[in-house]
Specification:
Length: 235
């Protein structure tokens, strides 16, 4: 009788824990959706100006620490698609070599301290690391994530599977080494920066075969954008 009661209590506790986790995931995702919506409401000229400032903060930190920050995700897409920031974007995305992460982190902290309009958060748990720089008034942000080379000739972001699937919602956080390294130097927003070795394969992984075709239709001011369907040009 006591054993049955213990099992029932254990099951109830597990159910409660599972419900709390699901509620936390739902609240996180809801907050993110609202945050993105609000950031996209910010006038395009102001948004791009803040993104440009964030870009330069990161470039200054990389140069001052002799580290190699490189474009990734939507910022890389903007570079490859039209050599500019995507007009409706609300953050800038960078990768950093895993063995350079700590040096870069200390450098970017110093840069942010010199700019009162920004705040910085460093998320570090279970091997996962990421730096977030946020504009205080608008929440427009920059995300910097380390990429690690492993013994299997792959590059990984060391993202816990649960966090990757349900929070980040990314399909892939492990890449062939030659997709990322060696980094290529390029000119972007009037500064020399780095991009992955095989941006084409990387962007196909993130956004699909037709990544060069915009999936947003925006007005002239790029302040009202609607998602559009893309016809597969390969069919």
């Amino acid at each position: 009788m006591y054993l049955k009661k213990s099992i029932i209590i254990t099951i109830i506790i597990l159910i409660i824990v599972a419900l709390i986790i699901l509620l936390a995931i739902y609240c996180h995702n809801l907050y993110h959706k609202i945050s993105v919506k609000n950031r996209r409401k910010i006038p395009q000229k102001l948004r791009i100006k803040i993104l440009d400032n964030l870009y330069n903060l990161i470039m200054d930190a990389a140069e001052n620490s002799n580290t190699h920050a490189f474009l990734i995700y939507g910022t890389l897409l903007g570079k490859i698609r039209n050599n500019n920031l995507i007009c409706h974007d609300y953050d800038v995305d960078f990768g950093i070599k895993g063995d350079e992460y700590n040096s870069f982190k200390e450098s970017i902290k110093r840069e942010v301290q010199k700019n009162n309009g920004y705040k910085i958060y460093c998320n570090e748990f279970f091997g996962y690391k990421a730096i977030h720089i946020i504009h205080k008034k608008t929440n427009i942000s920059a995300d910097i994530t380390p990429f690690y080379e492993n013994k299997n000739n792959n590059v990984t972001r060391n993202v816990p599977r649960f966090y990757s699937k349900f929070i980040l919602k990314e399909s892939n956080t492990i890449y062939p080494n030659n997709w990322i390294y060696p980094l290529n130097k390029t000119l972007f927003l009037n500064r020399l920066t780095y991009i992955p070795n095989n941006s084409h394969e990387l962007l196909k992984c993130y956004y699909g075969e037709n990544y060069l075709i915009p999936d947003q239709k925006c007005d002239d001011n790029c302040e009202n954008c609607k998602k559009i369907s893309i016809v597969n040009v390969n069919k």
